[in-house]
Design a protein that fits this description.
With 616 residues, the chain is an alpha/beta fold. It is 37% helix and 22% strand. The structure holds 6-O-phosphono-alpha-D-glucopyranose (G6P).
Length: 616
C-alpha cells in the first residue's frame, strides 16, 4: 500500500526512480511523484493518476540530480489530487518526504503547527509529518549538519503515533537520504557507489540484490558510499545483509500481456517449488523444518487456528478442511482483522498460523502479534522472504512461489494450499494417517503440477466462455466441502478485476434464500468435482436449471450427466478430493482474467485495490 523509493548515487535519479515506481505500482496507483536534489535546488514533479502521467510530466520538464525520492500512492488521508500526491514539503520548502502508512495523531500535530503559523497545501497526514520534522530542524539552534538533521528526524518520529515507512532529504544537508520504518515495510538496498531505500526489492533488482530488511523502529541514513542503521533511540542496532533470491526476469511480465496471466501460468512451477525437498517417500510424510517444532511438540497440538485476509483467508479455509480430514485436528480459520479484536478463547495447546503472500498485511501482522502476546506459538506461511510476518513469527514455511505482482492473487493461492496440504500430511502422519495413506497424498501432490498444466490448456475454451457470459448482470459461485472456499475465491477474483457483482455460497445453501436470485441474467458457476457430495451437487444443478438459471459447471472428466444438465462445462482431470481445490481454482482464475480483459478492465491494477494492505 503506497510504494516508496529513495536513491542516492552518481547517476541521474529520475529514470531510476521512475523505473522503480513502475515496479512498485502494484502497491497503489492513485497518484505518483518524485523529488530530486542538485546543487542546493530541489525539484518536485507530482500528479494524480498512474505512473505514465508522472512520466509525461517528467519528460516535459525533467528534474535533475543524483539524489531523489519517489512515491506511488494508495490514498488514505485526502482525496486523489495533484496536491495530495507525494512527495510533500515542509513549511520552508526545503525538506521533501514520502510516506507509506497512517499517522494517527495527525490532527493534534496539525493544530499545534497551525498555531505556529504553518500553512498546509494538502489534506494528507504526510505533509503534517514533513512540517513536524522541518519545524524541529529549523528550531534546532546548532549548525545544520547531517547529525542535527538526524536528531530532528528521530525526535519527530518519537512524537508521531501510527505507521510509517518513510524517506526524506533536506536541501541544506545534501548528500544524504534518511529513512525509518514502523509497521510499513522498508528495505535498504546496498549498491556500489549508490544506495537505495525501498518498500519492495523488486524496485531495485536492476541495480543490486544485496539488501537489509529493516526492522520496526530502525532509522537509516544512506549516502553514496555509506549507510548507517540505528534504533530510534540513536543506538547501534544489529542487522543482516541478505541476497534477494529471485531475478529481475522473474519480476517482469516477459511475453505475457499481464502479470496476472503470467502468474496463473506459473502455477505448475510454483506448486513444484513449494514441495521441493519437502516430501519424504521413505517416511511417507512431509518435512517442514522451518516450523522449528519436534514431532513430539506437533503431536501435543490440540487445535489449529489459521489467520489471514482476502485470498489467503480462502486458502486457509481449504487448509481447515485439509487438516481436519487428513489429521483429524480441530482447525479454525479467522479473519485476521477480527482475530486481533475478538479475544477468542484459546487453550495453551493451540498452534496459530498467519498466512500471507506479502508477509506485510497489517491486519495479519497485528493478529500475529496479538497471538504471540498471548503466549501462543505463532508460525507464518509467507511468500516474501524477509517480510515482517516471516521475521516475527516463531517459525514457518516459505511458499517459494516467486514474485507475485498482479494485484489479484493467483499463484500464491494455490501455493498456500499446497503448503497447507504438506502441513496436513505432516500432522496426519503423526496422528491417524497410515504410511500407505501418506504415500497416496504424496503421489497426488506429485501429479498435481501436470494436472494444473492440463487445466491451463483450457485457457482458450475459458476465454470463449468468458466472452459468452460477459454481458451477465452478476455471477453466483457454488461449491461444497473443499470446493466452498473455491466458490468464494472464484467470486472474489471476478469482483476484483471485472467489477461484476459476484457471490460465493455453499451449494447446499441455495435453497435457503439464494435461489431467489436465480434467473437467466445471473449465471451460476458450480464447482462440482468428483467427491462425496457429487450427487447432491447434481440435485442443486437441476434446481437451478428448473428456474432457467444458466450454469457453467467445473467438473471432473467423464461425468456425462453434468454435460447434459449444464449449459457449459469446464473439465478438470480426475483427482482425489483433497487436491481438487487447486484444480478447480485455476479455471476460475482464468475465467475472471478473460472476462476482465473482454470488458477492457485494467487487470493488473484493478480499481481501488492494492496488493499489499499495510494500513488498517
Ligand atoms: C489484499 C489483496 C488481496 C490479498 C490480501 C491478503 O486485500 O488485494 O489480493 O489476498 O490483501 O494479502 P496477503 O499478502 O496477506 O496474502
Amino acid at each position: 500500500m503506497c510504494g516508496i523509493i529513495g536513491y542516492i548515487g552518481r547517476a541521474e535519479a529520475t529514470p531510476i526512480l521512475l523505473d522503480g515506481l513502475r515496479r512498485l505500482e502494484y502497491r497503489g496507483y492513485d497518484s505518483a511523484g518524485v523529488a530530486t536534489l542538485l546543487n542546493g535546488t530541489m525539484e518536485v514533479r507530482k500528479c494524480a493518476g498512474r505512473i505514465t502521467n508522472l512520466a509525461q510530466l517528467v519528460q516535459k520538464d525533467p528534474p535533475n540530480g543524483s539524489i531523489g525520492i519517489g512515491h506511488t500512492r494508495w490514498a488514505t488521508h485526502g482525496r486523489v489530487t495533484d496536491n495530495n500526491a507525494h512527495p510533500h514539503l515542509d513549511q520552508s520548502g526545503k525538506l521533501a518526504l514520502i510516506h507509506n502508512g497512517v499517522i494517527e495523531n495527525v490532527e493534534q500535530i496539525r493544530e499545534q503547527l497551525l498555531s505556529q503559523g504553518h500553512i498546509f497545501r494538502s489534506e494528507t497526514d504526510t505533509e503534517v509529518f514533513a512540517h513536524l520534522i522541518g519545524r524541529i530542524f529549523d528550531d534546532n539552534p546548532g549548525p545544520r549538519t547531517q547529525r542535527s538533521l538526524m536528531e530532528s528526524f528521530r525526535l519527530a518520529l518519537s512524537q508521531v503515533i501510527g505507521t510509517y515507512g518513510i524517506a526524506m532529504f533536506h536541501v541544506d544537508v545534501p548528500d544524504v537520504i534518511l529513512g525509518a520504518r514502523r509497521g510499513s515495510p522498508l528495505i535498504l538496498g546496498i549498491g556500489k557507489g549508490q544506495n537505495f531505500i525501498v518498500s519492495d526489492v523488486s524496485a531495485i533488482l536492476a541495480h543490486t540484490r544485496e539488501v537489509v530488511y529493516l526492522e520496526d523502529y530502525d532509522v537509516v541514513s544512506i549516502e553514496r558510499d555509506n549507510f548507517d542503521i540505528r534504533s530510534l533511540a540513536g543506538t547501534g542496532t544489529s542487522f543482516q545483509v541478505s541476497q534477494v533470491e529471485f531475478t529481475l526476469e522473474e519480476a517482469e511480465k516477459g511475453s505475457y500481456p499481464h502479470f496476472m496471466l503470467k502468474e496463473i501460468f506459473e502455477q505448475p512451477e510454483a506448486i513444484r517449488n513449494g514441495m521441493r525437498g519437502r516430501l519424504s517417500k521413505e517416511e511417507s510424510t512431509a518435512k517442514l523444518g522451518g516450523l522449528n517444532m519436534s514431532s513430539r511438540e506437533l503431536r501435543d497440538v490440540e487445535r489449529i487456528v489459521l489467520m489471514a485476509c482476502g485470498t489467503a483467508l480462502h486458502a486457509g479455509m481449504v487448509g481447515e478442511c485439509l487438516i481436519e480430514n487428513l489429521a483429524h485436528l480441530p482447525t479454525e480459520v479467522e479473519f485476521a482483522s477480527e482475530f486481533r479484536y475478538r479475544n477468542m478463547p484459546m487453550n495453551k495447546d493451540t498452534l496459530v498460523f498467519a498466512i500471507s503472500q506479502s508477509g506485510e498485511t497489517i491486519d495479519t501482522l497485528a493478529a500475529l502479534r496479538e497471538s504471540k502476546r498471548k503466549g501462543h506459538r505463532t508460525l507464518g506461511i509467507c511468500n516474501n522472504v524477509g517480510s515482517t510476518i516471516a521475521r516475527e513469527s516463531d517459525g514457518g514455511v516459505y511458499m517459494h512461489a516467486g514474485p507475485e505482482i498482479g494485484v489479484a492473487a493467483t499463484k500464491s493461492f494455490t501455493s498456500q494450499i499446497t503448503i497447507l496440504t504438506l502441513l496436513a500430511l505432516l500432522l496426519g502422519r503423526i496422528r491417524h494417517l497410515s504410511s500407505a495413506q501418506g504415500i497416496d497424498v504424496i503421489s497426488a501432490l506429485e501429479n498435481l503440477p501436470d494436472k494444473v498444466r492440463q487445466v491451463l490448456d483450457l485457457s482458450d475454451h475459458i476465454a470463449d466462455l468468458a466472452a459468452k457470459y460477459a454481458a451477465a448482470e452478476g455471477f453466483l459461485f457454488f461449491g461444497r466441502q473443499y470446493s466452498y472456499p473455491i466458490a468464494l475465491e472464484g467470486a472474489l477474483k471476478l469482483k476484483e478485476i471485472s467489477y461484476k457483482f459476484a457471490e460465493g455460497h455453499p451449494t447446499s445453501e441455495l435453497k435457503h434464500g439464494i435461489i431467489a436470485l436465480i434467473r437467466p441474467e445471473v449465471p451460476s458457476i458450480m464447482i462440482m468435482p468428483d467427491d462425496a457430495v457429487f450427487d447432491k451437487n447434481i440435485s442443486s444443478l437441476e434446481q437451478i436449471k428448473a428456474r432457467k438459471g444458466p450454469v457453467i459447471a467445473v467438473a471432473s472428466e467423464g461425468r456425462k450427466q453434468v454435460a447434459v444438465l449444464a449449459d457449459d462445462v469446464i473439465t478438470i482431470p480426475k483427482c482425489p478430493d483433497f487436491v481438487s481445490p487447486i484444480l478447480s481454482a485455476v479455471p476460475l482464475q482464468l475465467f475472471a482474467y478473460h472476462l476482465a480483459v473482454k470488458l477492457g478492465c485494467d487487470v493488473d491494477k484493478p480499481r481501488n485495490l492494492a496488493k499489499s494492505v499495510t494500513v488498517e
